[in-house]
Specification:
The chain has about 230 residues and is α+β, with helices and mostly antiparallel strands. The protein contains 10 helices and 6 strands, in the order E-E-E-E-H-H-H-E-H-E-H-H-H-H-H-H. It folds into 2 domains: about 55 residues, ATP12-like (2-Layer Sandwich); about 160 residues, Orthogonal Bundle (ATP12-like fold). It is about 60% helix and about 10% strand.
Length: about 230
Amino acid sequence: MKRFYKEVSIAPADGGFAVLLDGKPVKTPARSALVLPTEELAQRIAAEWRGQGDTITAVSMPLLRLANTVIDGVAANREAVIDAILRFGENDLLCYRAHQPLDLAARQREGWDPFIAWARLRWSAQMRIAEGLGHVDQAPDTLAALREAMTGYDAFTLGGLHVIASITGSLVLGLAVVEGHTTAVHAFQMSRIDETYQAEKWGEDAEAVKRTTNLAHELDKAFELIAAVHQESR
C-alpha cells in the first residue's frame, strides 16, 4: 500500500490512547478503534507508522499487528485464548527430557529445572516430567494453577503471552517472562537447548538460522508489547 499520510500523532481516546494519521484515528482490520492502554505503547506504534517509507509494509509494524490481533481477537475471546495458551502447559517443553545423550540431558536439567521449581513455588504448579518419547499428563490441579496464573492478565498481556508460549513451546517460560522472572532473550535460549545442541554437533543450517532469528525477533516484540502495557502501571 502506498503511504497516504504525512503526520503521525497520538491522542487520548476512550480511556486509552489512539494513533492518528493526519488527525484521523487508526482502525483495526475489523474496523474497531485502535485504542492502546498506555501512552508508551501508543508512542511505539506511532513510531512504526512514522518509520514507513513511500510504501507501507505491514511486516515492518509488528507491534501494530499484535495490537490488532489483541483488539480484534483476544479481547472478545478471552476464555478461548486462555484455553489455547494452557495447551502449552499441558504439553510444556520443559517437561520432556532426553535420557541420551547424557550431556544433552544435563543441559536440560541445568536450564529447565529452575523454571520447574519456580512454577511450583510461584503457582503451586507441580509439573510432571517425562524422559524419552513418552507423553505425560499434567495433573488437573497443576493445570488449574496455571490457568489461575493467567486470570488477572489484561488482553494485551494474554496476547503477548500466547506468542511467547507458542514460540518457546512452554507456558512456564512464558509466565516467567511476563512475571519478570527471566528475560525474553533467556527464555528463548532455554527453549532452544535441543536445537543449539544439535547445531554444535552437526553444524548450522542457513534456513534454520534464519528461522531462529525471525522467531527471536517475534518473541522480542511480544515482550515489548507486554512491557509497554505494564511500564506505566509499575
